Queue: 3 jobs
Job 1
Amino acid sequence: MYENAQYIFSNGKNDCIRVDINGVTSFVPLDEANADFQRIMALVAEGKLTIGAAQ
Amino acid sequence: MTATLQTTNIQNATSSTTNLALDTSGNVTVGSSLTAANNITATSGTVVMASSFLRNKIINGGMQIDQRNAGASLTPNNQYTVDRWYFGNSQSGKFTAQQNAGSVTTAAGFPNYLGFTSTSSYTLLSGDQFYLRQAIEGFNTADLAWGTSSAKSVTLSFVVYSSLSGTFGGVIANSAVGYVYPFTYTIPSTNTWTTVSVTIPGPTAGTWVGATNGVGIYVYFNLGTGTSFSGTPGSWQAAGYTSATGATSVVSTNGATFYITGVQLEVGSVATPFERRQYGQELLLCQRYYEKSFDVNTAPASASASAGAFEFAQQVGASTTQYGPSCKYSVAKRAAATVTFYNWNAAGNQAVNISTAGNTTGLTLRSSQSGTTSYSITFTTPSGTSAGQGLSVMWTADAEL
């Protein structure tokens, strides 16, 4: 389960996504081969998850 | 008295196929399988095989590597159990899973198995799915030439044990789970280890990823699947099935068990003996997909173990942003990994200053500087600390398919 997704800003751009995966905070690279990134983007496309803007 | 038998072929009296063919150069061709009660020796040269050593495309088929849980029981919710084995569910809380669950006498030659226990008598909905699955990387399946006229058959073998008997099911699928081969198998007796072998013809159609780091093949074992995801067994079909019609639903019987080990997927139509890799080899194969700083038999957690911590120098003064260092993986990852940090000294996911026990803030992955061979971090140093002191953090890296 993916919750509380938020972009992390670094190097002048969105660099990764901080997200709680089954209750544990993790950092997901913006890599299309990364399975978590794939599932997060699928949930976003389905309207089931929103990625917050970087603070 | 000795004599020389001169002939070209040797053939069974009731067969139409030559068993042994002898040529003029001293070569012998065996028509089919060759079985030896003792050794087969090549006094020079090598033994060459079409399906060679390292023939098992399944990783951790013996269920001995359990980096995430270290043998502990869990109630899986769309997550990995033992290494490389993913449990998928449409309803949560219906199973417990554990390496060597129930502590039954193991199958001969297999010290470990993965066990599931149903926690209720759940009535399946048409759209329900409960399954155990392994995704095999495309680099390791491209040789099968699936989706072409040269597609090779494969044989799936495994050893299984259940409190239920009857017909069970599974599926071989492509990366999109849109082109599948449902299969069934039989467990004839309850609570008895049964060896199963299923041969799957190579599909000449369907979309397959080829030699990439994506999903080459999914192997599914069904634990309960509704009618929407159950298909007729025994043929390739363009559908999104994850089980076979008529398969036993383990989830529908409270307390029912399903244990499995010795999973092997290999080229050809014969199930050869399970390929036994050394423990260290199997661990290395698993670490392409999941690695951790924790000892192999320690489950990741905060405020817990520090053995194996990533330790590095604080390069700047207190309350200052530090970029780096990077941490090198032991094994190159399939793709850039999802990284999770654990503070071994306290709850949370920050690094700890070894001198003051103060915690960093804002510890994050530097994704742009991270890749398949290492990850890099950035954070703000703890207050009351100094450059040159040591920082320490535990981590996991997940590059699963």
Job 2
Amino acid sequence: MSDHTAPLRNNALLDVRNLAVEFRIFQGVVHAVTGVEFDMHNGEIVGLIGETGCGKSVTGFSLIRLIRPPGRIVGGEIRFKGVDLLSLDDLQIRRIRGRELAMIFQRPMSSLNPLFNIGTQLTEVIRLHRVHQRKAARRLAVESLSAVALPDPEGILGKRPFELSGGMQQRVMIAMALACDASLLIADEPTTALDVSIQLQILKLIRGIVQQRGLSVLLISHDMAVIGSMCDRINVMYAGSIAEAGPRDRLIRHAAHPYSQALLKAVPELNRSEQGRLVAIEGTVPSLLNPPAGCRFAARCPRVHDRCLQKVPSRVQVGPDHFASCFYVASTVEAASAGHSTNLPNAGSLGDAAKNPKEDRC
Amino acid sequence: MRGKGTRSYVLYAMRRSPLSIVGITLILAMTVLAIFAPWIAPHNPYKVSMGDRLLPPSLTHPAGTDIVGRDIFSRIVYGTRLSFRIALSVVGISISVGVLLGALAGFYGGVVDLLIMRVTDGFLAIPSFALAMVAAAVLGRSLNNMVWALALVGWTWNARIVRSAVLRIRNSDFMLVQKALGASSARMIFLHIIPNCMGPILVQASLQCGLTLLSSAGLSFLGLGVQPPLPDWGLMVAEGRTYLPARWWLVTFPGIAIFTMVTGFLLTGDGIRDIIEREVS
Amino acid sequence: MTRYVLFRIAWIPIGVLLVVTIMFFLTHLVPGGAVQVALGPHATEERIAMVMQKYGLEKPLHIQYINYLGNLLRGDLGESIVRQKPVVSEIGTFLPASVELVLLAIAFIILIGVPLGVIAATHKDRFLDFISRGVAIGGVSLPQFWLAIMLLLVFSFQLRWFPSGGRIASAVSAPRHFTGMYILDSLLAGDWAALRSALSHILLPALTLALTNISTTTRLTRDGMLKAFKEDYILVAWAYGVKPRRIHYRYALKNAILPTITNLGMTMAYLFGGAFIVETVFGFPGIGYYSTLAILQQDYAPVTGVAIVVSVLYLIVNVCIDLLYVVIDPRIKY
């Protein structure tokens, strides 16, 4: 994990602004993603966490413009190394896919074509993006397979996907990204379909690669344990928008947004000496077909107020590099800066429950 | 299932599959021609008129006349009746036999299934047209014999399809309940299983109507099926063949008629299949 | 796995037995009467009795059946009543032409039907999808004899591009006999005149056969491609910027092609059946032509003989395809 007390760098690797994605279906238009903003820097692992259907996968897919009809990216900017990816034409975006931004998916078992062997699939991609000669490409393939700690890389080249286990297949997918020398890896629920013991291995592998190569990773998951153990920064998504974003430790210890707090309370904690109650979040996610007028979490929020139902809250800074979109948070921040001694409530069951006024400076 | 829900859903499904609409329209048009033939056809299809032989298409004879002066257009219009009769008879017989055998095979399984399926496989291995030719020749050349010959060829497909549908349904929970309630085998077969197979059967019926028409036209073309002076389209092509290429209308219009009707049946069958598959997915 | 292979191969003789039994009962539905019809209304009682005795037609049915089977095992398919020649040798002369015709037709079906299916899949629910499917269905709906006649009319009579009958021009002599298939033989013998002539004679019939049978291939290819598109590995290919055309033809198609290939076995039976009409109209001397002429003369042995031969071929081809499946798709385990 990179040292998050270092001064923030100005030129981000990835800068997403105001991203909006729609899906046109029989009943109408689904606003899957609305006004999403976040950025990423070199060597950073950024997490995107939320429930199923909150739009985190759609966001991930949008980065390399994998959204296909009936879905459409309808607004925003995706600046990667300074270039807006949404402004590129098809040919340009194809060059970038894999070479600059690579993606691994949830089901490694079906990510590889069963009728071709691993070597063919790897070298194909390598020859497309890096070197043309077969021999050189093969060498690169072997290198990348060793980089993901696969035994007998040469032998694996000749194997068919079904001969490998799920964990090994996911390593191959990571190898594919490494072979193309991508700067940013989008990992969409990379361990969800794997056994728990394998999950740990894969996550460790990813962390190792980040440290060695300075690869940046956008880790998308619904699993707080995964996000919490891996990420430097966490973005919490709800119903298509980012509810809260901040450095890992801050967010976990001092989550500001009521949703984030509830999310953290809902995670079972195995190491705690005192077991609190698991609190489920009441209610259900609103339909994105006709999103409510105000804050989308309003219906389930314990801190809801009238204005929450009327307007969508804007981003408010809660701490260093820590933001939340919530009227309640905004009012608390105002109150604190006006001199009241209220502190941000401590949230979650992970980590220290002690208050620390110095860190709560706005 | 009755009610507005089903109807509007079917209409919606049909709108999504324009090809099926084309198919149904063609069949409806043909049906109209068949029913109202006496009013639509300008002339008597059997009336020989040696003075009017081999006339090209004109206002009085929109499709020209044939070698003995009969109006081709009228013959084509009356031919729709013949075609429907052939298609529906053949498909009727082959579906009845096929559904029965397929249901028995699927329901009882074991020896019955083995026996029936082996016989079916044997039939399927023989090229259908050859089989129909042999049967037609052996039984003698006539329309009725041709119908039996084609039915003999056609039942195998139905048996297969019904058997797989029956197998699917037989093992469902619904049938277990029925059995527990003490329903007799016959009751289960006729009241529950067969109605649930109607979807694939309907698709098969429609497709088979089209293919039967093609085969019957072919057999009649060769002289093994419908005999003169009936206005069968295949027969008309055969009769007019020797007068090519000058008298093109003798062959072109009957061919178009066959094409149109067969297309109608095939598109309808495809369309129904699309609708059923959509429902499944 | 070997069990499966043996099982499939063992099926062939059983299938053949079924086929010949069916043919037997079919042709013996009308005892004796067939002979009467064959010999015509003026045949004398003695002549009929003589023919019946010659072919053992007066014996009881089960004896005839046993004789029939015995003959078959000896390779005797009967004699043509009209020409008094053994059916087996006649089929031997005519069969290579039909095999050549069917093979060429299958080549056309793949070359036309598969791309149509790919186009339909890649333009799903749009204009080209409907056009492709429409063309495919239109092909099936055309009566073969009609299409044959039309093609002859346009290309043979009007444009004079292609000849209108036979396998090879009478002026050109047949190539040296290796397989009996003129195209192959002339290639092997380097006989270019024969090659050109044979090709020009076989083209229209093969095209007619093909065009009327592409709809299933197109539909299966389309369905297979659409199913492949939903798979994750296609998404991965997109994610790595692989060119769309490559994704369609190399990835999706290879996975989609399997059901299409299996279906080709069935298509082959259809083609042999369709060859009857096409060969007759084009005057192409294959087994279809042979048996159609025979049946019009009420000569049954040739037709049943041809039907049996074709059925056996069909059974063998299907078993081969099943075995090929195992090779192509390594996931299938027996």
Job 3
Amino acid sequence: MAVSTDLSTNQLDIWVIIDKIKNNFLLRRILKALFTIWVVTTITFFVIRAMPGNPVEIMIQELTAAGVSPDDAKNQAAALLNINLDEPAYMQYLDYLGNVLRGDLGNSYKSRGLKVIDIIAQVLPWTIFSVGLSLLITFSLGIALGALMAYKRDTWIDNLLSNLAATLDAVSPYLIGLLAILLFGVIWKIVPISEMRGALSPGVQPEFSFEFFVDVFHHVKILLLVYVLSSVGSWMLIMKSNTISTLGEDYVTVARARGLPDSRILTAYVGRNATLPLFTRLAITIGFAVGGSVLLETLFTYRGVGYQLARAISERDYPVMQGVFIVITFAVVFANLIADLLYGWLDPRIRIVGGND
Amino acid sequence: MQRLIDTLTRTWRETVKTFKLLSRNKMGMFGFLMTLTIILLSFVGPIIWPPEQSANVADINQGISAKHWLGTDFQGQDNLRKVINGGKDIVTVAFLTGVLATFFGVIIGSFSAFVGGSVDSLLMELVNIWLTIPKFPLLAVTATVVKLNDPVTLSLLIAFLDWPSLARQVRSQVLSLKKRDYIEAATMLDLGTRNIILSELLPNMMSFIMISMIGIMTFAIYQQTSLVFLGIVPYSSANWGVMISAAERRGVLFNQQAMWSILAPMGAIVLFQLALVSFARSLDEVFNPRLRTTV
Amino acid sequence: MNPTLSVQHLSIEYQARRGRVQAIRNVSFDVNKGEAVALIGESGSGKTTLGLGIVQLLPGTAKITQGKAIYHRNGHAIDTLALKGKALREFRWKECAMVFQSALNSLNPVLRIADQFSDTAKAHGYLQGRALADRARDLLSLVRLDPDRVWKSFPHELSGGMRQRVLIALGLLLEPQLLILDEPTTALDILTQRNIMDVLKELRQKLDFSLIFISHDLSLAAELADRVATVYAGKIVEMADVQTTFREPKHPYTIGLINAVPTLKGTREELTSIPGSPPDLIELPTGCKFHPRCPLADAQCKQNEPELEPISPGHQVACWHWKLARESLNKFKA
């Protein structure tokens, strides 16, 4: 960042900095991400603390009903939810923010003694694994099939795949999950569903061994399948539409006129240009997958963050709910940031580092 | 007043034209008719076949038979009857959400596109930020503090979360339409922003609006049934989502006979969603010449 | 000496919803070695279709219903319309390069100019690496571009005129015998247009290639072409060397076109245009396709379509009344 050091005043020129920020794609993007996280933590605070019928009041009521004195109840509720009820609202808010920044998300209401951050740390890697892997498969499959559909437009393959994609896209993910369990586990009995509940077989230790990975995969494969099936439809259709547009572009015709081989045209001319706009879709897909994880992990008893959130919701364990929600959003925002930066790097029309804007 | 009548007439004519074109597309007609059928059954059905009051212990968890076309549930009640009665809530919420979200999305989206400039940029940045937040967890968490016993509140909440994505789509649509000549002409004739939006833009966007609304509806169905499934929304009535949730909790999935009490409501939801989506897809094909397969 | 390209009885049709569009009808003409032929006509006359047809880049709805395009080089002759697969790819750009109208979107937006050149070279087993870069940069200088500025940039960093010139340089990379330019300056402003025309003239002097120049702009044709063919409703209606075309045109359409262009000097005459509009290529008029707009039309014109006939060495006309053409010039001004 350029610092304008005027010898006479010797101070940072704030306007130069603001200007630099406005022109630098990377900085802008990071600021937006931080802002989003701030918005989310604030919303969570608002929902948990400020709305009528909010958890704090409920907790106090419950404790008082259980025979705890009003003061003690207040203190206990405050301690659990990590807020100081004697302070004015804005101070509570600042405390809350400070705690979140420090990674202190309070303690679980239901399982006293367990810190929320520890609970999350235990389950988060599982979700990242399942959602991450499924997204990778969805993207690759969606792009490949979408391009295929565009090239083989109007043939039986295109019609079949298009209808399949539209159908998959229309059905809710958890219905797909239920259907998967029904079909694979109960009717066709391909997979031993009851064995597959949970992320690991009992007794298997997490370690970097082959058996571990095999076991993990054994448990997660249907879940992966369901994730992929629920998102791949829209990717295929959008990729098909993008590819058709790109195929109609002048530079593709000119590429053929230049005698370029089909393989080169497919990858560097059609492929890259058709895939780029998909990045805007990435954000939605990531958010959708993470949101869907709440349901699907519950359905498959897969102990990831989604499962944790669902459990916390049904148990009304507010600290855990609050903490998981913030972490989920943080993860999504972060993933989107990476995706945006990747897009900025890949598309020469948007340059990350300063320069032409 | 005359302006309003004109706009309504034009919009009506456009809609009629849409349907005429639509009838050429078999998938679309099927989707449309199926949607109508489901809606009718859900509202008129319960009057003709009211829900059973008591349990028939003798008939618990039966598969398909002549007496019970879709089998029975864990209480011995007929699944088909429950399905007919179970649609009202779902359909109501879907429609309400669709209308509300579309209404706000269209107004704010077209306003933003039309005004342009820094107002537009700001609004869109806000929308983008809003869109990064994962909807369903937010919905679930909010549902714990807000009482969601009636369809209206639920619809409001879901619509509140869903309208921004619609606003963004509407905005880009309006932006592309804005560049067309007749809009420029209207602007130069100084017809006023509100007038232009009402009489020039909207009639031409009807198909797009309809498609978007259907998208919102499909998503709303997903969201509300998910809430029920997770036990966040109370079991106030026996709608399809409740049927699925209740059955799943009783391990019905593992019993080949009993599974119809899950398959039936699932089928209903899937059918409804598919019907909506085929209708929307055919609308899209009709109005998007590039996607058309014939010349 | 065999002509570089000999188009013989070429007919091309498109399938549209209303019916079949007869874009090119039984067209024959030659392009000799080192010669520049201009194809002039209004929008929709079929001239672009002709260019696309030669390199087989017509859209899927088009069909070549008859004809050949015989290409000669070093004593070998091939029909470009019969080429397939690898042979077709080798022919394209190496033997015949077609530079399209409006280069605004003709270059892949995600590749640098250097990569676009190396792609082309690699596809034809041409020079690579340093040798390629040197040659390409020479070509860029030839088209009056600064190689340093252009070589590593992306298409969107260049102006329309610059992109057009890059495309021309790219077209010359493999030293083709035949260059087809389709409206190379139409989308550009006057100054850039001038620039490109000058570049093209220089190139013709320095390098040895045959050129087919497709345009609706007569004045540009006058600058660049050796021979001019006027195209109307998918047919060539007059073909002559450039001097004759402008001094002694014999087809009413050609005359109308020339009259429509204002002259810089001379008396202040009224600008005339040809009344009416180009015919519907699906339902063509009977007889001579120009008769609805022609001041000389009579019953014969309505019934029979005239073919291209030589009326003097190097001058062909398709008109029943070409002898009256000059005298009836004034009728357009009525």
